[in-house]
Amino acid sequence: MEAELLYKIDKFKGDFNIVDMLSDLPHDTERRYELFINKIIQLDTVTENNLSKILMDSSADIKIRYAAFFAMCTIYRRNKDYTLYGNLLREHQEAFKDFKSILHLKSMYFVEFADTEDEIREVIDLCKQAIKYGNV
Fold first, then answer.
1. Which end of the chain is more exposed for a tag (fewer CB within 10 A), N or C?
2. CA 41 to CA 47: how far, in whole Å?
3. What's the chain's average pLDDT?
């Protein structure tokens, strides 16, 4: 699957179905999941608007919606748009609470705002939980 997915991403850069790509990802606790998401969001045809449509489509498979969510969080983090990142996390954390890699997304967000010793400890605890599931 891994080689096939990389082949699809490289060969069909501008001509592919985003949903097909997002449906063919490794388990969200694997590091490869994040690597593939990173590769997918570099494509010109993958836009925040397209990902948002997938995320908001309640009829779509939850794994595909989560992949769109993960991709959007990654885009916001890279762009240092922490307002959108935080809003997205708050809006969807309940829907995606069963995905272990959400701990990684939360820790990446909260580490930007941890100022007090207690906040830093909370982020460290969150990171430890994320590491436990292998998605950091």
1. N
2. 8
3. 84
